[in-house]
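Q: Focus on the shape:
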Amino acid sequence: MKPGDHAKLTPMQPVFLLDRFARLHRELMSLLRGLSPNDWSRPTACALWSVKDIVAHLLDSSIRRLSFGRDGLPSTPDTPISNYADLVRYLNRLNAEWVTASRRLSPQVLVDLLDFTAGQVHAFFRSLDPHTPALFPVAWAGEDVSPNWFDIGREYTERWLHQQQIREAVGAPALTGREWLHPTLDVFVRALPFTYRQVEASPGRSVRFEILGDAGGVWTLVRGATGWVLFNGSGNDPDAVVKLDQETAWKLLSKGLDQGAARTRIRIEGDHHLGEPVLGSLAVMA
């Protein structure tokens, strides 16, 4: 990328998604209240979890938000966490413990509790200054401290993703129009600088990411003096161009597509050494 091309790129801006939560929740409630008894036991793309298990996990997320965030319950881990892998193991254990215990609850109880806590979670999010540090950083983006808007955006993506997994499992229409999916992708792609942290390149080299489809967009990763920086826009003459459709993008970035399958669905032009690391990118804790 030539020095003048940087002017064609714009810095990434905060994403404010508070207004999406209530509507997303209404879509979920309508979906869940229309499920048949057999639907609740259907397997999902979320490994080892049924539809009912995912709903239980969503309830856990709401209860943790209220308990730790709103009510100040101490959230000190009961095991040492010295690196990212330790954190993933710890969170996986917490999630598994809750889901296992929640198998004693009926679908009706889970839905009622999820609906009861939703408004409280939304109100809590509205009470936060979007620019002050969040209680928990967005670790999959490599951050030690994250602003509330990013943490809330991360929460939106998790709720959209799990609802989408339920929809796929029961054959319900997907929420993949631009209104729903573009914000998810705009948050997900912020994992790319962390993904590329160990990719060596001289300053100024760049990778353009084109996500095709109504909900897609174009982003460019540029190597700076101290690391990779993500921008909106395409610039000119990138060293590599990665093209993928929106379904491939959200599934790849959320561990819903393995690297082998993703490789057949992604087109890389130019320097493959710079394009291929995207196959290892994740915007979820895994």
Q: What stands out?
A: The mean pLDDT is 94. The CA atoms of residues 32 and 62 lie 17 Å apart. The beta strands are 10-11, 206-212, 217-223, 228-232, 240-245, 267-270. The first strand starts at residue 10 and ends at 11.
